[in-house]
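Morning!

This is the sequence you dropped in the shared folder:
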Amino acid sequence: MNFEELKSILSTAEESMKKAIQHFESELVKIRAGKANPQMVDGIKVDYYGSLMELNQVANISVLDARTISIQPWEKNMLQPIERSIIAANIGIHPQNDGNIIRLFLPPLTEERRKELVKRCQGEGEYSKIAIRNIRRDAIEGIKKLQKNGMSEDASKDAEEDVQNRTNTFIAEVEKHLAAKEKEIMIV
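The structure's back. Tokens below.
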């Protein structure tokens, strides 16, 4: 009957929920927890001869120690545009340019700043949960349409229960990531 359509709805919902988790993980990485991480500068665009390029496409990014990121441009004349882009990105770190490389020194986090970062993490977690719940809603609407088109009520209820179980699993995963990130941020 509508088994293929149902299977499609369930697999689409699961794939979308996995993507929501992946996006959440990538957002958490950008929130610094006192340790230097090259991914903190992901998404920063640099004006490279009139076109915007990702920072990692115009420079080598490495971690020198727990609190220092080094950015070595492939062309020396890119130092100023990279420095301007980092300042414009407003990541809370001021670049130090020595004429050859740019260093980003991460200041130690104050208690107040740590709490702000935890709130930001929780906000990202909430966005992810909302996305997952929206995916659940869309899947359940699709299942209800199938029921109207002749799928049995039992099969419909089982499918809705399956979607709810998957939703619970992914929301629990968001909570697990949040707890780990909060612990990482609050460790002094």
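Headline: The chain has two domains: 3-30+110-186, 38-105.

More detail when I'm at my desk.
O.
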